[in-house]
Specification:
The chain contains six helices and no strands. The protein is mainly alpha-helical.
Length: 157
């Protein structure tokens, strides 16, 4: 257990030259992938049992949120240990530009998914499908925002 923590600390501290904001984006990408996969797995498993699109699953959503929060707390704590001054520093102009660009594009993705969800509801009349499509859209939109944030930091915006 201590070996794993030490290796994670090394990655976030010395092996890569990343700002705290980029480390944060990596942490949140991981959290969203784990949580989104868990939720998709629970929905698909339930769909296999009931042989239709299952209704919204409050327990699955709650567990997904708990997974995100747990990973975010642990990951951000480890990332902040590497350079506490960077973690507490205010955003500079570049950080604001990166966040704005990534948020703008991910917002467009969310809008497209919501429109497709509404179209699917209008054609199929399945509110359960619309719900799961919008949840998937929110997860994908956030994942896109963090992935774009990483890309913009690496690309040099």
């Amino acid at each position: 257990k201590n070996i794993l923590l030490h290796e994670v600390y090394k990655i976030f501290n010395t092996e890569f030259s990343m700002s705290f904001q980029e480390k944060s984006a990596w942490v949140m990408c991981f959290a969203l992938i784990v949580s989104g996969t868990f939720y998709a797995w629970t929905v698909l498993a339930l769909a296999n049992v009931v042989q239709t699109v299952p209704p919204p699953n409050a327990g699955g959503l709650a567990m997904g949120v708990i997974i995100i929060v747990a990973i975010a707390i642990f990951g951000h704590a480890v990332a902040a240990l590497g350079n506490p001054a960077d973690a507490n520093a205010p955003e500079d102009e570049r950080d604001r530009l990166v966040v704005w660009r990534a948020g703008n594009l991910s917002g467009l993705l969310l809008g497209v998914v919501c429109m497709l969800s509404l179209f699917a509801f209008a054609v199929l009349g399945d509110g359960n499908l619309m719900f799961h499509m919008i949840v998937a859209g929110m997860v994908l939109s956030q994942l896109a925002e963090y992935a774009l944030t990483i890309w913009y930091y690496r690309r040099g915006v």
